[in-house]
Amino acid sequence: MLRPSAEVAQKIISVVKRKYKNVAESLACQFQYPTGKEGLQGGHYPEELIGLLPDDVTKWYCGVGNPLSLSKIVSGEKVLDLGCGAGIDAILAAKMVGSSGLSVGVDISEEMIKRAQSNKKISQTTNVLFQVVEVAALPFYDEQFDVVTTNAMLNLAVDKKRALKEAYRVLKKGGRLHVADQILVGSAMCSEQAMDCWFK
Ligand SMILES: C[S@@+](CC[C@H](N)C(=O)[O-])C[C@H]1O[C@@H](n2cnc3c(N)ncnc32)[C@H](O)[C@@H]1O
Fold first, then answer.
1. pTM of this prediction?
2. Is 20 touching ligand 1 by the criterion CB < 6 Å?
3. C-alpha–C-alpha distance, residues 134 and 73, integer Å
4. What confidence tens digit (pLDDT) does each residue in 134-169 have?
5. Which of 44, 108, 112, 149 qualifies as a cystine partner to 67, CB 3.0-4.6 A?
């Protein structure tokens, strides 16, 4: 697995934060794949699920698949979304778990978390919380969540091994990890090339 030096790792984190500060303002020209409602439809989210959210919320979606479909999320469960962005999956998970459950979304970008807070308000969802967090160090006790979900975040995380270790730590025994992401096909780059290629 690609392991950048500490210096390169810091640079990558600041480039990721800068990119998502801009994304929180507008998705225009930021991605090479469909985003917003078109992205949700392309990712085969059921229409009735998409219909639960106003267009002003779905327009901020920039995931690459539908991780919520990977097992049935039911009433009363506790779900954690890693790299929640503007909060679309976390808000949809909140609708699935209902008022007896809880959905938590975390993201490294303060601006994306502000956007998620705004989307929480617009969608009138109460059982969802958002917090600025780096996924390699989750501020949660062990075995708290029934489901950990993540959509298009792991490919950006510098320390993927630690992010996955943290995800497993906070999952209850028998909990489920739902991942939608992009993978590199071919050989890994050396660390000097990594930053230039991080968003390709
Ligand atoms: C492509 S966006 C996907 C957002 C959201 N999951 C969605 O489907 O719309 C990736 C998100 O991961 C976040 N991210 C990247 N690296 C992260 C890290 N190390 N810790 C937490 N969040 C991270 C970014 O800030 C960004 O909001």
1. 0.95
2. yes
3. 25
4. 999 999 999 999 999 999 999 999 999 999 999 999
5. 149
How many CA within 13 A on the CB side of residue 113? 17
Pocket test for ligand 1, best of 108, 113, 131, 160 (most atoms within 8 A of CB): 108
Mean pLDDT of the chain: 94
Task: Determine whether the shortest distance from the Cβ of 85 to ligand 1 is under 6 A.
Answer: yes
167 lines ligand 1 (CB under 6 A): no
List the domains of the chain with CATH numbers: 6-198 (3.40.50.150)
> pLDDT tier at 58 (50, 70, 90 boundaries)?
very high
Instruction: At 127, list the tokens.
Output: 């059982």
Ligand 1 within 6 A of 109 CB?
yes
Q: Considering only CA atoms, which residue is closest to atom 13 of ligand 1? A: 83
